[in-house]
Write a structure and sequence with these properties.
The protein is mainly α and 408 residues long. It has helices at 2-52, 57-60, 62-81, 87-106, 111-131, 136-139, 145-153, 155-174, 176-197, 209-216, 219-239, 242-248, 257-278, 283-304, 308-336, 341-369, 372-400.
Amino acid sequence: MSTLTTSAGDSATSARSARAGWPAVLAVMLGIFSIVTTEILPIGLLTSIGSNFTVSDGTAGLMMTMPGYLAAVSAPLVTVATARIDRRLMLCAFMLLLASANLIAATATTYWAVLVSRVLVGVVIGGFWSIGPGLAGRLVPEGNARRATAVIFSAVPLGSVLGVPLGTLIGDLGGWRVSFVALGLLSVAVLVAFAVLMPPLPAERITRLAVLRGTLRGVDTRYALLVTVLAVLAHFGAYTYVTPFLERVTQVSSGRITLFLLAYGVAGLAGNFLAGAAVARRPHITFGVAGGLIAAATLALPYLGRWEPGATVLLIVWGVGYGAVPVCSQTWFVKAAPHAPEAASVLFTASFQATLSTGALVGGLVVDRTSLRAAMLLGGATAVIMVMTVVGRHRRVIATHPAGRSAT
């Protein structure tokens, strides 16, 4: 009798989740949008915040370093520790924590307080990203799950297209603190949306550390990890410092930086959708092209980026390349571990965020000790290594499975 009751309860919960539909999916998308914007907004405000607290560009880059490392640690720990807790409750808790982090940043009187807020952002990134994107299939009918997942992931390039340029513009008009106040209000709005629109979402699969370790032992997973590390390291080692580069090398006024970031963001959105259409059929070629575009842009920027037209074109090329990276990386991880999708999502989040922080840290050291141009060249060289790794993996797959030539 109890088994029948439990089954009926589970069926009722699944039915309620399916009826939640697209409003709940859009709420998750807005949650990721607010997280992504909060995470990368310091790129647009780097010089403003650094000058406010009289710290160097490299030290200001710690605002990008802190969240990533915390996210890498919190992704597996939070996912395992909260494996049995209703996912709706966890999403609400993460949004409350994000709103608190933005409020702390907005009212910070010392740079250390800003870094504390970034620690909280890191916890939110690791926890939310590990469970949020995988909920699409529980919120809409099975036939719409792929489209719902694409809608959720569109929040990543939208953060670059809308979030960072708009946040930078707000910072130029009202000060960088006002930008964080706006993000805090957005986080609260998303929290309310989760409370109103999201149905109960009890955990379906329990992710344990043993599952994560087992997934990491796979050869395909390790290749996905290596290529992701190289691509993200190349990008954030350079892009974290693109605002100072545009101001000091290209000689762009601070008020016009938003336009350059907007051009990059629109290109990133295009790259995301182009890669989403191609990566399922040709995962190696798609990821390799993305890395090649990043390499071309960052290697050429120190030379052609001294003039505004050259910088604009190269930022568009860069945006298309990096816009493809998250969807390519996630696809590689999922293909490597189809039996454990949440574990694959955790590994994707942890590796992505840890490398993001390392890239920002290494780039900051290069900028402080050498020059902004050197940071761009180092990013380009790393992207070249990433492309060579993808090509090598592609050749091994062809040699092992000649019949799979057309799908690589």
